[in-house]
Amino acid sequence: MSPIVTRFAPSPTGFLHIGGARTALFNWLYARRFGGTFLLRIEDTDRERSTQAAVDAILDGLKWLGLDWDGEAVSQFERAARHREAVEAMLATGAAYRCWASPAELDEMRETARREGKPMRYDGRWRDRDPSEAPPGVAPVIRLRAAQEGETVIDDRVQGKVTFANKDLDDLVLLRSDGNPTYMLAVVVDDHDMGVTHVIRGDDHLTNAARQTQIYRALGWETPIWAHIPLIHGADGAKLSKRHGALGVEAYRAMGYLPAALRNYLARLGWSFGDKEFFTGEELTAAFDLDAIGRSPSRFDFAKLENMNGHFMRAASDDALFESLVATLPYLPGGPAVLETLDSRKRAQLRAAIPGLKERAKTLVELLDGAAFLFAARPLALDDKARDILQKGGRAHLAALLPKLSAAEWSHEALEAAVRTYAEETGAKLGSVAQPLRAALTGRSTSPGIFDVLTVLGREESLGRIADQAGA
């Protein structure tokens, strides 16, 4: 068995959307599972729509997801001369021919097909016609001389055996009249030259596999192994759109998802391994195979993704989660402003707050939001619930607690003991004492454990915030 080679071949006409990311992941996992090679090809033959910004976004998205490719990324456009060379070989063997059908003739074919309720098919009028009849001064397109009878069979690792009637696969264009190769040709030549053994892609390309198989045969080349994976739908079963989550990978980074969690979630969209839900990177690579991919479309569910992300955050070490948060700050809402204030003291405070914060957060956005009290300036702005707590007797508790906390050793245990003693002496419930402290220290009615907050903020800042509200 020859070494496995897979590839991801996005078009740089936009961001790396979530469906493309899953396709890249499946190709990456399969290559890594079997010690193969994972290649990246940028299919940039559409010069009007291809942009360098999109190329950069694709590369950045793959790197963030941890999907490293082997060798340099290949530009399809830069291989145009090689594509033309392959067409010349087909012309020489009669597997391709020149076609001078005019735009008006093609329009007429489309109109006829529309009236008959059939898909547009080129009628082959130049298939066997003498080139001497060509109109002067008109550059032809080059078409594949496709089989007109019989069937083209695709033996697909996911879809099974799929049969196409050759009469439905017309003589597709290989080279446009300006000499530029079409996508259908370029993909075949590139996959062959790059040694791709397995083409793993969305099942919207299944018909393309039949057409490309005919090109492979015309060139005398062996076809790769096909694996066409079902597309991703929204939670409601409809075609995935932006409202469902058809966003760029960079949007998921900005929403605070961890790459490991997103990889795990995408892998489980359409692929299963018993009842196992959560995988480490090593477990995922060791378990993945094409035979376990289902044929039905998967449903994208943000709630499941959030829950999975929360699991990965809680499972991460505090140091690793802290580093992930800091690295992602440039992309999170409000993150750049936090990054500007993140001196050594604030870094230490944020790191110390991670254990208490991560138990309550499902995303890095929520983690950062929970840490907002660390970066708030005095006097703190209070939300409505915090203001209500202080107005309803909370300030009296703060005033009474202030000297007791000032005299206490500044440790979690000593501070908790001081507050509990105060509550017992006054007959107050611990919650009714802790809530005013929380409001004064964070400006909110919810936060990590109040004694964690006190120790993370430190003596001076904590007492200052309590004093601000006790005397207000």
From TrEMBL:
E.C. no: 6.1.1.17
- Name the enzyme group at the top EC level: ligase
The record lists ATP as bound by K242
Query: What range(s) does the Aminoacyl-tRNA synthetase class I anticodon-binding domain occupy?
Result: 338-468
Query: What CDD domains would the database entry show?
Result: GluRS_core (cd00808)
- Chain span(s) of sequence motif 'KMSKS' region: 239-243
Domain of life of the organism in this record?
Bacteria
Q: Alphabetically, which GO biological process terms does the record hold?
A: glutamyl-tRNA aminoacylation
Q: Specify whether Zinc-finger is a keyword of the entry.
A: no
The record's keywords, sorted A to Z, are: Aminoacyl-tRNA synthetase, ATP-binding, Cytoplasm, Ligase, Nucleotide-binding, Protein biosynthesis
Reaction(s) catalyzed by this protein? tRNA(Glu) + L-glutamate + ATP = L-glutamyl-tRNA(Glu) + AMP + diphosphate
Name the principal localization, coarsely classed. Answer: cytoplasm
Where is each Glutamyl/glutaminyl-tRNA synthetase class Ib catalytic domain found? 4-306
Matching SUPFAM superfamilies = An anticodon-binding domain of class I aminoacyl-tRNA synthetases (SSF48163), Nucleotidylyl transferase (SSF52374)
Tell me if Protein biosynthesis is a UniProt keyword of this record: yes
Entry similarity comment: Belongs to the class-I aminoacyl-tRNA synthetase family. Glutamate--tRNA ligase type 1 subfamily.
Role of this protein: Catalyzes the attachment of glutamate to tRNA(Glu) in a two-step reaction: glutamate is first activated by ATP to form Glu-AMP and then transferred to the acceptor end of tRNA(Glu).
- HAMAP family for the chain: Glu_tRNA_synth_type1
What is known about its subunit structure?
Answer: Monomer.
Q: Which NCBIfam families match?
A: gltX_bact
What is this protein identified as? Glutamate--tRNA ligase
